[in-house]
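Page 37, continued from 36.
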């Protein structure tokens, strides 16, 4: 059992400041304003947009033309899963990652082991990207979605 040390207690009390605080307590003084030079307000030069025209797809809209960019169309039809993850029927959705692009299908409510999406996902593929990840998740109302299947396509 700890004993009360009166001398130690008096030293701690001596370090405590009692009474009103000074006016500058916890106040930060703003830095002095720096002299400004005269700068003309000039609007930045707008960056010209170049539109990509892909045969069979027409004008792709606001996509900038870059050498080495292609268009990838992925049609996600259905999945055949081996088991039902969880106590109730799954609500699966599919996520496709190509480079830094991430695309998702809508959730197949009560899709269970055989969800159907029939969804076309379209993305631009930059040069140097030669693979994609396809993942199937079970959407959860509470908590984090659980990944139930995945594959890496080269």
């Amino acid at each position: 059992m700890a004993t009360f040390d009166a001398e130690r207690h008096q030293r701690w009390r001596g370090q405590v400041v009692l009474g009103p605080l000074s006016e500058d307590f916890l106040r930060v003084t703003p830095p002095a304003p720096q002299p400004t030079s005269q700068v003309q307000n000039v609007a930045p030069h707008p960056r010209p947009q170049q539109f990509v025209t892909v045969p069979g797809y027409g004008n792709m809209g606001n996509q900038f033309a870059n050498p080495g960019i292609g268009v990838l169309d992925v049609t996600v039809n259905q999945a055949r899963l081996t088991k039902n993850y969880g106590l109730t029927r799954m609500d699966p959705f599919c996520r496709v990652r190509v480079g830094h692009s991430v695309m998702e299908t809508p959730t197949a409510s009560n899709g269970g082991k055989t969800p159907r999406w029939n969804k076309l996902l379209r993305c631009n593929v930059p040069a140097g990207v030669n693979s994609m990840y396809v993942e199937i998740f079970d959407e959860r109302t509470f908590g984090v979605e659980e990944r139930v299947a995945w594959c890496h396509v080269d």
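The radius of gyration is 31 Å. Flag for discussion at group meeting. The first helix runs from residue 6 to 15.
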